[in-house]
Structures are given as C-alpha cells and as structure tokens.
C-alpha cells in the first residue's frame, strides 16, 4: 500500500486504513480532540509519516510503518447463531473476532445480528471495508430465510417492491426474491439497514425463524462449516476489487443510489453504535 520513509497520509485516512474506524468516524474523533500525533492534538488536515506515533483516546495504535509492511488480510467466516459482531463488552455473548482467533488484528466488515448466521468478512483493510459497507454503493448481499407461515404472492410482491419500516422511518429499496418452498425464500439486498429482513417480514405480519447470509458481492459461503473460516482467494479478491473499482468509476461519472431518508437513518445508526462503543 505504501513504501519508503517518505510515505505520507492524512490522519483520517490512516485511521481508516489501519482498521481503527471509518474516515467519517475519524473526522469526528479528531474534531473532538481525541487524536494525538506525536503527543500533539491532531487537526483534520494533519499528515502522518513514518516514525510518527498516533494515539486515540489515550491508546497508542501505531504508525504508518505498520501499513508499509503489513500483509492485507480478508477472511470469510461462517458465523454461528449466538455470536456477536461487535467488540463492545455490553453483550457478554461470544465475539466473532475471538471466535476466529486470527493472530493479527482484524475486525468485521459490517454486522450480522446475534440471532442470524452465515457469511461475514473480517479484514485489516479499512479502506476496503468502507467501500463494501457504504450503502450508496449498492453492493449485493444474499440471504436464505425461513419464516413461520406460508409465503403468499402478496408477501413476495411487497418484499420485492420495498417495505416501509415505521421504526426506522425508511422504505427499503426494491430487491430480488425467489421462493424455495412454502416457508423458505432467497433474498438479495443492496442495502444493510439494522435487522432489515426481520423488520421487513414483521411489517408484513411474518416472523423470521432462521436467517443465513450466503453471499457478499462475489464472495460465497459455500460449504464452509459453521464456526470456521477461510482466507478469501486471490481470484475472489481480484473480482471484488474489480467490482469496487467499477462502482467508483460509476460514481465519478455522476451515478448515485440511495435516498435522503436512508442517509438520515445511516447517521442515526452510526450515532447509536458510537454511543454503544463509548459506554463499553
């Protein structure tokens, strides 16, 4: 990613690249005076280079030299039900990072709620994680869902066209849905609202019995056993980066997805998780 003693990087990009937080979260921490570079309070435009030490909330997190020699890591994990995807200590359930026990610092790309299972990615690449998670990018995630009552044509039509979620004050984007049997369906989303599928089903009078994520973009769960993990292959990584680059090019050309209500919800959700982390 970087090389040489002259490597320079803005502080918010460094915090994202090293996997501490997103750039937006980094900007907030910097504005609140919680980030120090060589003992001095950082500003939004502060640049870091080799030899400088960065501290956030009193904890040293290293420097640019760690990024120069660090090997990129991207893991595909089959998360079991009951495991959480947050590092907060508020929930005493097993943590996905502890479950994997990877020898280097990695963190989950997004979340998969405690009651759900299936594919989640762990990485040490902050920029990659940010691009995958950014809702406006419209990246696909596919799920296998079982509900508590027979699936009707009306249910399928409403789920495909979008469901208004009163609690979040947002209408879901149109999505793809195919029925497997009277109680089971596959659904492909291009957004990641909190407990989205469960909320969509509940809004239509259904209860989710089981939910498994089986794909994130081009990366598939496949036959990976519950509670185990694997390294994402070079071929998968190449296809993933190609898709991200294509999306960047599309946005540079003026393409955009999402809505104001979705962006507003995103900000509220980020505030919620920031509070959770500060309380931990």
Describe the structure.
By secondary structure, this protein is α+β, with helices and mostly antiparallel strands. It has helices at residues 11-17, 23-31, 65-69, 96-100, 126-133, 153-161, 196-203, 234-252, 260-279; strands spanning 8-10, 35-37, 40-41, 47-49, 54-56, 59-62, 74-79, 107-108, 117-123, 141-147, 164-165, 170-171, 176-181, 184-189, 208-216, 219-220, 229-231. Strands 7, 8, 9, 10, 13, 14, 15, 16 and 17 form a nine-stranded mixed β-sheet that branches. It has a four-stranded antiparallel β-sheet with strand order 3-2-5-6, with no helix packed on it. Helix 1 packs across helix 2 (23-31) and helix 1 crosses helix 5 (126-133).
């Amino acid at each position: 990613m970087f090389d040489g003693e002259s490597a320079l990087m803005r502080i918010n990009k460094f915090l994202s690249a090293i996997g501490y937080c997103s750039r937006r979260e980094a900007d907030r921490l910097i504005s609140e005076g919680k980030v120090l570079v060589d003992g001095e309070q950082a500003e939004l435009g502060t640049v870091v280079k080799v030899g400088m030490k960065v501290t956030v909330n009193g904890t040293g997190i290293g420097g640019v030299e760690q990024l120069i020699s660090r090997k990129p890591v991207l893991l595909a994990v089959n998360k079991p039900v009951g495991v959480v995807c947050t590092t907060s200590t508020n929930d005493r359930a097993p943590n996905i990072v502890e479950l994997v026990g990877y020898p280097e610092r990695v963190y989950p790309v997004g979340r998969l709620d405690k009651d759900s299972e299936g594919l989640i990615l762990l990485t040490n690449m902050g920029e990659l994680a940010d691009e995958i998670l950014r809702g406006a990018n419209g990246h696909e995630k596919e799920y296998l869902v079982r509900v508590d009552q027979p699936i009707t044509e009306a249910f399928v039509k409403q789920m495909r066209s979008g469901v208004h979620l009163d609690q979040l004050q947002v209408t879901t984007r149109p999505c793809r849905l195919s029925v497997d049997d009277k109680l089971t369906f596959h659904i492909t989303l291009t957004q990641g609202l909190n407990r989205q599928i469960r909320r969509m089903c509940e809004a239509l009078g259904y209860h989710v019995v089981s939910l498994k994520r089986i794909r994130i973009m081009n990366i598939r769960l496949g036959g990976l056993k519950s509670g185990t993990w694997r390294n994402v292959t070079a071929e998968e990584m190449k296809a993933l980066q190609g898709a991200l680059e294509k999306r960047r090019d599309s946005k540079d050309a003026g393409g955009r997805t999402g809505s104001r209500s979705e962006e507003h919800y995103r900000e509220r959700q980020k505030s919620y998780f920031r509070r959770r982390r500060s309380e931990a």
